[in-house]
Amino acid sequence: MSGGGTAGGNERQIAYWNEVAGPKWIRVQAAMESRLTAVEDRLLERAAPRAGERVLEVGCGTGTTTARLAGLVGEGGHVTAVDVSRPMLEAARARLAGLAQVTLMEADAAFATFAAPFDLVTSRFGVMFFEDPAAAFANLRASLVPGGRLVCAAWGPIADNPHWSVPLEITVARLGPPKPRRPHAPGPLAFADRDHARTVLTQAGFAEIAIEPERVMLSGRSLDDEAEMAGTMGPAGALIDEKEADAQTRAALRVAFREALPGYADADARLPATIHMITARNPA
Question: Cβ distance 179 to 242 under 8 Å?
Answer without folding.
Answer: yes
